Amino acid sequence: MDEETGYSPPRCRRCLLAEIDRDGVYKTVREYLSSLGDDVKCSADDYAARLAVCRACDRLSDGMCALCGCFVEVRAAKRAQNCPDLPHRWDKIEK
Ligand code: SF4
Fold first, then answer.
1. For residues 14 and 86, what is the distance between their CA atoms, to the nearest angstrom?
2. Which amino acid residue places its CA nearest to atom 1 of ligand 1?
3. Residues with Cβ < 8 Å from 81, sequence gap 6 or more?
4. Res 7: pLDDT
5. Which residue, 12, 62, 75, 93, has most beta carbons within 10 Å?
6. Integer Cα distance of 3 and 44 in angstroms
7. How far is ligand 1, taken at its centre, from the CA of residue 38, in Å?
8. Which residues share a beta bridge with 78?
């Protein structure tokens, strides 16, 4: 919310944090993602595929998963993580 005007932008049901970055949080997220080692991160192809699934998911809201509370850009980056829904929505894209 803008403290001067009191305006709160509407929630975005299909946006990633990178697209809405209202409070500069995405810069911190990018720095964190950059700090992850290659042994932790999933491949670029899998990352893009995971985020595409999230974009089409009704659990996504303002870049955050309503099931786990994670920013999906962070959760999707880690190879060992999976979608918290059952069945896991990312399973069909994993190789
Ligand atoms: S992590 Fe899974 S449940 Fe959460 S938004 Fe992405 S696809 Fe949907």
1. 20
2. 83
3. 75
4. 77
5. 75
6. 38
7. 23
8. 41
Helices (H), 1-95: 17-20, 25-35, 44-55, 72-75
With a 6 Å cutoff on the Cβ, whether 49 touches ligand 1 is: no
24 alpha carbon – ligand 1 mean position (Å): 23
Separation CA 35–CA 57 (nearest Å): 28
Amino acid at 63: G
Q: How far is the CA of 4 from the centre of ligand 1 (A)?
A: 34
Q: What is the SS3 assignment for 3? A: coil
Structure tokens at 69: 């509370």
Residues 38-70: tens digit of each pLDDT:
999 999 999 999 999 999 999 999 999 999 999
pLDDT (tens digit per residue) in 11-23: 888 899 998 887 7
> Which atom belonging to ligand 1 lies closest to the Cα atom of 57?
8
